[in-house]
From TrEMBL:
Gene Ontology annotations of biological process type: cell-cell signaling; intein-mediated protein splicing; protein autoprocessing; system development
KW Signal (keyword) present: yes
Secretion signal span: 1-23
Name of the protein described by the UniProt record: Sonic hedgehog
Species, as recorded: Brachionus plicatilis (Marine rotifer)
InterPro entries, sorted: Hedgehog, Hedgehog_Hint, Hedgehog_Signaling, Hint_dom_N, Hint_dom_sf, Intein_N
PROSITE patterns: INTEIN_N_TER
SMART domains: HintN
Domain (Hint): residue spans on this chain: 113-211
Keywords of this entry: Developmental protein, Signal
Lineage: Eukaryota, Metazoa, Spiralia, Gnathifera, Rotifera
Xref: Gene3D superfamilies: Hedgehog/Intein (Hint) domain
Length: 290
């Protein structure tokens, strides 16, 4: 449910970015029709999923995709639009209309996950380590900033979490028995290349892994890539968009091939999280006076 809502938040932000990106072509011959695409209420999608009304959900998703591709076309500004439209298209393809009754079926919902497997760990702000499956909103964990420096960052959202579904993960091993497992569309930082989707990582590529003993980042050279079906997945989002998983510097994002654009697309989520915290603090402060 949260995935659908976030998809449309990212699409909205992308359209707002259009005026700042030189496309070299008109976005639409009829801007008013393009804007009608944005009138679809993301909450409606969430309500349909929560009710299990996949038929209506599929029809609505298909209509949104048709609207976007018809009036927005392919000049939204390169990578920003490509990643977001691919994600919506992927969602639409996994949800097919079939049969005389137009019954909607989800081919394999677990394939929509873009996450880390439950057997990974995260490093907390105090240096302790715990299972990533125990991660929750409000946790302070280790992450990296835009300069690659180690920082503390708060988990502000859990994109996906399912302890019972099985998902195909890519597992990367180095020469020192370190490993990390994540889905193919998830981003991970690669030295000299920047953030890449896991499926694009090759033998010999190097990650960054934090050594608690030496209090510094070391190289994690990929010596083996394995594909394993594992049960349980989770995708935490930190305020800085990065997180150390099994000590490895990884992104919190998937699908979009640009970490900065993905982070920009999450600004509304960050804004509402900070705002809600401020409001809660004010309410607690006001009530404590009585």
């Amino acid at each position: 449910m949260k995935t659908t809502k976030l998809v449309f938040i990212k699409i909205t932000v992308t359209l707002l970015l259009i005026k700042f990106i030189n496309c070299g072509c008109p976005v639409s011959d009829n801007p008013s029709q393009m804007l009608q695409c944005l009138t679809i209420n993301p909450q409606a999608f969430i309500d349909l999923i929560s009710k299990g009304d996949y038929k209506s959900f599929c029809h609505m998703a298909n209509g949104y995709m048709t609207c976007m591709t018809t009036y927005v076309r392919d000049c939204l500004g390169g990578k920003a639009a490509t990643g977001i439209l691919e994600e919506l298209q992927d969602l639409n393809l996994k949800c097919c209309i079939s049969g005389r009754n137009q019954e909607c079926v989800i081919k394999n919902p677990s394939l929509l996950s873009k996450c880390f497997s439950f057997d990974n760990t995260v490093m907390m702000a105090d240096g302790s380590v715990k299972s990533i499956r125990e991660s929750k909103v409000g946790d302070m964990v280790k992450a990296t900033d835009e300069n690659g420096l180690l920082i503390n960052s708060e988990i502000i959202e859990i994109f996906h979490k399912d302890p019972n579904s099985s998902t195909l993960f890519q597992v990367f091993y180095d020469f020192k028995d370190n490993k990390i497992s994540l889905t193919g569309s998830h981003l991970i930082y690669v030295l000299s290349k920047g953030y890449l989707k896991a499926r694009d990582v090759q033998i010999g590529d190097k990650f960054r892994i934090y050594s608690q003993k030496e209090k510094a980042f070391k190289e994690f050279e990929v010596k083996k890539i394995d594909f394993q079906i594992k049960e349980g997945f989770i995708a935490p989002l930190t305020y800085h968009g990065t997180i150390l998983v099994n000590g490895v510097d990884a992104s919190c994002y998937a699908d979009i091939n640009n970490q900065n654009l993905a982070d920009l697309a999450m600004l509304p989520v960050k804004f509402w999280y900070k705002l809600s915290k401020m409001l809660n603090m004010k309410i607690e402060s006001d009530t404590s006076e009585f």
